[in-house]
Amino acid sequence: MLDVSVISPEAVLFEGSVDSLVAPAFDGQMGILTGHAPMMTLLGNGELRLGAAGGRRFHVEGGFLQVVDDKVRVVTERATAV
Amino acid sequence: MAKGRELKGRIKSVENTRKITRTMEMVATSKMKRAQDRVTAARPYALALGDVISRLYSPELAERFPLLRQPAQERRAAVILLTSNRGLAGAFNANVIKEARTLLARLEAQGTAIELHTVGKKGAGWFRYVGRELASSRIDISDKPTAQDASSLVEGPMADFIAGRLDSVYVVYAKFNSVLSTPSTSERILPVAPPSSAAEQRDYLLYPSAEEILTELLPSYVRNTVYRGLVENTAGFYAAQRTAMKNATDNAGEMLNILRRTYNRARQAQITQEIAEIVGGAAALQG
Q1: Per-residue pLDDT of chain B (287 residues; tens, 9 = 90+)
Q2: How many helices, marked H, and strands, marked E, lie in chain B?
Q3: Chain A neighbors of B56, CB-CB under 8 A
Q4: Alpha-carbon distance B194 to B70, whole Å?
């Protein structure tokens, strides 16, 4: 499982475990599963999907995503739950 | 019993004032709690951002970023002073304004030209009173400052800094350490201070590159510093207001005690006097 936190300047919007996520990286969608190599990427604007279909969704604008040891931090300028 | 009636009126009036200050104290307490929650909620973002920046930072990269440029001397500086729109908070605004004046005096002594930006009616009011020109003055930022408020506030000075029209940018505000400790602070937000301790280095895959990530994140970091200033200042304001209103309520209570005692004494004196008169009258009749 991945420990995911979604953080905006104003609050932590989500904290929990999911088995996968799809994030809007600066150059297109990016899927992340467990065992990912340590990575940082810039985010673009778009939808962040946590877990499989039916999971939580957020609209994020800018910021970055960091993966290390199955911990994922989505730090974004602006995020709203969809 | 003319004096008695007068005292009664004053007691009533002090009681009413105490009712008002006690209510204001409770309102300030609840607003403070909410503001305090916002301070806590803002922490993870600041930590995450600071952490990543210190991971990516390297002295070789630093030279390429205008936001990290350390000017040899401060010729022009911008000071952003955060105050409140409302008063009744004791010396809260006076303290931040004093801090700002100290900073202005220090900068002016070394020959720096200053442009002053204020947030809140109180700061603007004071500096207008002493006849200082303000580069901008905002009174539209509410109790619940947003990240957008912060970016609209700092975007101008940040652009000027990048263009080389400013050599440094300061924010003066009340830092919220705890309910009882909200010291006035001046913080230099630009140039961005290089991270003091390099975090443990791991081999990250970086997309698109360390340089581009920093290009995005450094401005976010600066905006976030201002956002934190805004939320901490709001929390500090309500903490100060709560203390001020609590003191006012306590003082009103003390005053009531004294007034009630004086009133009772006057009433007792009158009764004693009436009895003495009656006894005196009866004695005269018996003659």
Answers
A1: 567 889 999 999 999 999 999 999 999 999 999 999 999 999 999 999 988 888 888 777 777 888 888 888 889 999 999 999 998 999 999 999 999 999 999 999 998 999 999 999 999 999 999 999 899 999 998 888 998 999 999 999 999 999 989 999 999 999 999 888 999 999 999 888 877 666 566 688 888 888 888 888 999 999 999 999 999 999 999 999 999 999 999 999 999 999 999 999 999 999 999 999 999 999 998 87
A2: 6, 6
A3: 40
A4: 10
DSSP state of B90: T
Which residue in A3, A1, A11, A2 sits closest to A75, CA to CA? A11
Give B44's contacts in chain A (Cβ within 8 Å): 5, 7, 12
Give the Cα separation of B19 and A78 in Å (integer): 42
DSSP annotation of A19: S
Integer CA distances (angstroms), B9 to B12, B20, B262, in order:
5, 17, 13
CATH of domain A2-81: 2.60.15.10
Domains present along chain B, CATH in parentheses = 2-23+246-286 (1.10.287.80), 28-242 (3.40.1380.10)
Encoded amino acid at B34, one letter: R
| The two structure tokens encoding residue A36 | 């990912």
Q: Which of A64, A73, A78 sits opposite B217 (nearest CB)?
A: A64
Q: Of A7, A10, A11, which is closest to B48 when you measure between CB atoms?
A: A7
Tell whether A61 is within 8 A of chain B (Cβ): no
Q: What is the DSSP string of B124-175?
A: HHHHHHTT---SEEE----SS--HHHHHHHHHHHHHHHHTTS-SEEEEEEE-
Q: Provide the residue ranges of all domains of chain A, joining segments of one domain with +.
A: 2-81
**Residues of B engaging A, defined by a Cβ cutoff of 8 Å:** 38, 41-42, 44-45, 48-49, 52, 56, 146-147, 150, 202-208, 212-213, 216-217, 220, 223-224, 227
CA–centroid distance for B193 within its chain: 24
pTM of the entire structure?
0.88
